[in-house]
Design goal:
The chain is mostly helical. The protein has helices spanning 3-7, 14-28, 30-86, 88-97, 146-162. Helix content is 60%, strand content 0%.
């Protein structure tokens, strides 16, 4: 069989026609076409994967949001229940009915001698400067209180670390 007989139209064998078709495809660049089809399939699969991932994530977010809403409602109900249980009327009723307590006939207050004086309030932005209604309480000599001197030392240390020295501020009275 010569080459001319193989390609002649008189020989119509299906096997021969298929072989000729494959030969023409290879001659025209069949491999790039297969690569392009594989790339299109890969892009489609990636799109489907991302779509299913988004759907799964959306469903999970919906479930978590529903759980959050339920827990917020439950928290509000528990807060209302706690407020109801802490009400003074309820506490008084429980004390008298269940515990058998009674209101005292006479109230006595005890006087305690030698209570320590309250520390003066130190202004946060001006260490060593006493402010407020308790300025000067427990501070007899015009010198800064213990709390003010501690504050002064702490601020001085931070300022030293920052490279800035501070001078002690005068105490206002």
């Amino acid at each position: 069989m010569s080459m001319a007989e193989k390609t002649s139209p008189s020989n119509n064998s299906p096997l021969l026609a298929r072989w000729q078709w494959l030969q023409r495809l290879e001659a025209r660049g069949f491999r790039p076409l297969v690569a392009l089809c594989a790339l299109v399939c890969a892009v489609c699969l990636l799109y489907l994967y991302q779509g299913s991932t988004v759907a799964t994530t959306t469903y999970t977010i919906g479930q978590l949001d529903a759980t959050r809403t339920h827990l917020l409602r439950q928290h509000e109900q528990l807060q209302m229940e706690a407020a109801r249980l802490e009400s003074l009327d309820r506490v008084r009723r429980e004390a008298t009915e269940r515990l058998g307590m009674v209101e005292p006939a006479e109230v006595r207050y005890l006087q305690v001698a030698n209570l320590p004086a309250e520390e003066p309030v130190v202004h946060a932005f001006a260490p060593g400067v006493l402010v407020g209604p308790v300025a000067g309480v427990g501070n007899s000599g015009g010198e800064p209180s213990l709390l003010a001197s501690i504050w002064q030392a702490i601020v001085g240390q931070f300022s030293a670390w920052g490279g800035q020295g501070i001078e002690p501020q005068a105490q206002s009275r």
